[in-house]
Amino acid sequence: MFERTRLFSLVLLLFSLFFSSCEDFFDPRQQLVIETEDFFKDWSEYRSAEMGLYALQQDLVDQIIVLGELRADLMEVTANADRDMIEVNNFQISRDNKYASPINFYELIGACNSMINQLETYHKEIFSTADPTDYDRLYGEVKCMRAWAYFNAVRIYGRVPYIWKGLTTVEEIVAYVNTSGSYIDSVDIVFDPGGYYNDTIKNTPVTLERQFLDLEMVIDTFTMELENDIKPNGVGVIHNKDNFDLTWDITIWNNYAYRSLLGQMYLYQGNYVKAEEYFRSILYNYDSETSSVKFGLDWKFSFGKWKSIFSGIDGYEHIFTLWFGKSYQQQHSLQNYFSKQAPNRYMIKPTALAIQNWENTWGDVRIIKNDANPELTFMREYGIPGDLSRGYGISYVYMNGDEIMEPADVHEMLLLKKRMLLKDVEDIMSGVDTILYKYTYGKQPFDQDANIIIYRAASIHLYFAEIYNRWEWDHDGVVIPELNESLKILNNGSYNDNTSQMGVRGRVGFGDGDDAIQVSNIIYIHDPLTNEIIGYETLADLDAKQEYLEDQIIEERARELAFEGERFYDLVRIAKRRDDPSYLADKIARKFKGPMKEDIRALLMNEENWYVPFYE
Question: DSSP letters along 189-257, please?
């Protein structure tokens, strides 16, 4: 039923009309029920409802991170894990598993439907060609939030029910989803142009046919909706006009987040032209006021400063971030899952594969190559092991009891590995636990309120590199691939004429010379512990080179974006692109031991098992 016929129940977050800081955007949850005839009389009430929608999006965080990472190869359960987590890790998810439930998606989509109905009925200016007003921008936020919910749900379940716009409560949605065939909504409301007080309520049954959408249908439906229904630059209410706090822009859906979502959906569809179109405005975004590139990868988060991406909100790296604050009762459970410090439960940890991604990265390397006779190639400088900017001390730490191992000790341990003094390494690492630290960094044990990044600059750069690797361009009638542009984005940022750009690897010290990822006819294989050359392979043609570079991009995503919720879907996307389920099955099976390794591989060779089996 349309919302005007009943009490409008929505989590509201009260706040003053003029804000003093970003944190004021999120006041404590108030379980308020507002009579509909008293609701949405002025802009402050629309803004309160807007905040209620973000509270519902926050409720999805645990599910998004656990399903997006624990099913992949970078996370695994500990002996403390509960049944639900073990089921997720082992691809044996039961219907009553708390991470399987779509209820939080239903709540968000239903609330978005209600807000869209409100705006379309009482603010007809959103259909005009005039410049966007605050109501237009709010409409853009809600449309993006609903599209994002569908996109994430279909990546989890493989197919999702299309929830008709008239369905605005969980009870209605569940009844509709559980009805075989048609669902009958018993009340029909005819909206009069004069507004609410002239609405006509008829007891006329409305028949809704239950429909399910797969990924292709979700992308087609919601890219069309976002492109056609939202005005140019029409996403994101400009809250900072009251307080000049620019972090407001990042904690709501905004124009750059809108483009990120559209680019991401088109990338999953394989439409590189459209994906590149939407990502381009993020990569090539010169700010004349600061003479720098907004969302560029420069000195701002380079080397040791990289970890500060996760200690605050910054408009040069963060595109859209869900803000949390303990003092405002805005919390999630991730620190409880990952941290070993009491009272947290330490139920999930990084896999050895995840740690190797950082510890087996080498800097200050020099190779004397002889591609004509590869057997004569040799190492002039073996280099220094460890991506310590993005790895140890931020993405993960080692703990012995209650003590975190010092970075200098970890560096020494890696040098011992390099010298193959493995007994000494074993002595140092005896009794050490590996801790996922990205959601604990800078936090006290009870905080549980790390911000959750939905989109950030480095992820978009890596998506762009992925596009250029596969996309062949027409240069004055000559069609050639753009692998070199992909490598520039990946390594040193020289794709952009702005010389401050450092690239994804470059800003943490691995973007130049033999430290950089390279693509050539001969690829040398190195021992992961010593960096000694132990063999080579030949990339005979363009397809082989593109596949090799794609592998490197996805592993760079693992180093840059580990534990942020996208790893499983990265593997799904590449496996589908190559029409090769073994790509995903092999990578995930590696984290298991014994007979279970082969069991998981066999299970994942069937694409149907990539999805949570809720709508069977």
Answer: EEPPTT-GGG-EEE---EEEE--EEEHHHHHHHHHHHHHHHS-TT--S--THHHH--GGGGGSS--HHH
Spatial contact of 354 and 438, defined as CB atoms under 8 Å apart: no
Rounded Cα distance between 244 and 250, Å, is 13
Check residue 26 and give its pLDDT: 41
d(CA 336, CA 581): 33
Query: How far from each other are the two terminal CA atoms of the chain, in whole angstroms?
Result: 27
Which pLDDT score is estimated for 284? 86
The per-residue pLDDT for 387 is: 98
Amino acid 199: pLDDT: 55
Domains defined for the chain, CATH in brackets: 3-16+26-174+214-254 (1.25.40), 579-616 (no CATH)
- Which pLDDT does position 413 carry in this prediction? 97
- Please give the pLDDT value at position 28: 35
Residues of the chain with pLDDT under 50: 1-38, 195-198
CA dihedral 570, 572, 577, 579 (to 10 degrees): 150
* Dihedral angle computed from the Cα positions of residues 312, 314, 319 and 323, in that order, rounded to the nearest 10 degrees: 30
CA distances from 538 to 108, 520, 542, 544, 546 (A): 50, 9, 12, 9, 13
Which residues are bridge partners to 476 per DSSP? none
DSSP state of 526: E
Res 207: pLDDT: 74
**SS3 at position 377:** coil
Of 419, 368, 356, 377, residue with least CA distance to 535: 377
How much is the pLDDT for 478? 67
In 3-state terms the chain splits into helix, strand, coil percentages (rounded to 5) of 45, 15, 40
Name the nearest CA neighbour of 488 among 523, 459, 518. 518
Closest to 568 measured CA to CA, from 541, 593, 588? 588
pLDDT for res 12: 35
**Alpha-carbon dihedral 550, 553, 559, 561, rounded to 10 degrees:** -110
